[in-house]
Amino acid sequence: PAELTSLLLVMLYDLQDRKFQAREIFDEEEPVAEVQKIEGYLYSFRTKLAAALARCRIKHDALSVEYILPETIRKQEQRASALPLCVWINTFKISLQDVFRDLKKKGFTRVETVSDFDYYTYCVDQHCHDVLFFPSSLKEELLNLDLFADCKLLLQ
Where is the NOL1/NOP2/NSUN 5/7 ferredoxin-like domain (predicted)? Predict the structure, then answer.
């Protein structure tokens, strides 16, 4: 149906991003029938989709899917990837002071504002004291911290 076109496009991009591999399903996820149906269709045609994508890339002489996108969308993607990462502290599991102490042990330095960011730095939101900002370049490293694994910090 036409009302599911946007969902289809998002799922297709996600499938391509996962290199046409099946999505991991976690126990806490509640299945949505429409999503599962579309995912089944896309996955059953994954070889044809991958081949069509490869032909499109060759036709447009594109190094990756991103190069097929219009220039305006690519610029928006670049700006979005440069935005700081927003992280919520799960105060049901850990106190603010314990988070600050753990981050300091891991080599992070607290700065006053986002404009003061250097590599291993973070700042506290001035309006919500349980929200932290990190440089976007640290995403992979942050997600490997125990604080994230234990759901004490949650990436927005």
Answer: 86-156
